[in-house]
Specification:
Blueprint (H helix, E strand, L loop, with lengths): L10 H13 L15 E2 L2 E2 L13 H13 L11 H12 L1 H11 L10 H8 L2 H17 L4 H18 L1
Antiparallel strand pairs: 1-2
Length: 165
């Protein structure tokens, strides 16, 4: 396991680029078996029903990711790569699920609200917390509807992400 847990200088930008690559970038997807529906830059119509997904720009996607996922999970306050893993989980599994998995990985009360206790615990033993968080993600995916259809892709995504850092 790599021991470099220092964030890159532009931590959100680095995380955004990794996530957008995993999400397929500007390619539009409309798989009828995907409950998210029409998707571009990883932003799906189901989550943003009033948004013109086909016209979505990279800048628009960056703003949505920062506001609705990165900031919502206080990723600026988490050690790298845990911040990246929580960010990706918020996007792909939901903000509430990401917060709860973070709390479980940090061994604090699981209430879905990332506060000072969660952040402090996440910063203690960051390597262990990051590995435990990813294991919890994999376990949660295995219990998700459509795992038989998308499970290999979901698990490949989290292992590839871990390998990137």
């Amino acid at each position: 396991m790599k021991k470099n847990y220092n964030p890159p200088p532009q931590i959100f930008d680095a995380a955004f680029l990794l996530i957008v690559a995993a999400e397929g970038g500007e390619k539009v997807s409309d798989d009828p078996r995907d409950p998210g529906g029409l998707t571009k830059w990883g932003i799906c119509q189901r989550s943003y029903p009033d948004l013109d997904i086909r016209a979505l720009t990279e800048s628009d996607a960056r703003e949505i990711y920062r506001r609705d996922y990165w900031d919502a999970c206080k990723c600026d306050e988490l050690p790298w790569p845990l911040s990246l893993y929580v960010f990706d989980a918020a996007i792909n599994q939901g903000v509430s699920a990401a917060a709860r998995m973070l709390q479980e990985a940090a061994d604090v009360t699981v209430d879905g609200k990332i506060g000072p206790k969660t952040l402090a615990a996440a910063k203690s033993h960051p390597e262990w917390r990051a590995v435990r968080f990813m294991a919890l993600r994999a376990m949660r995916y295995s219990q998700t509807k459509n795992f038989d259809r998308f499970g290999m892709g979901w698990l490949t995504r989290i292992f590839a992400l871990a390998q990137e850092v």
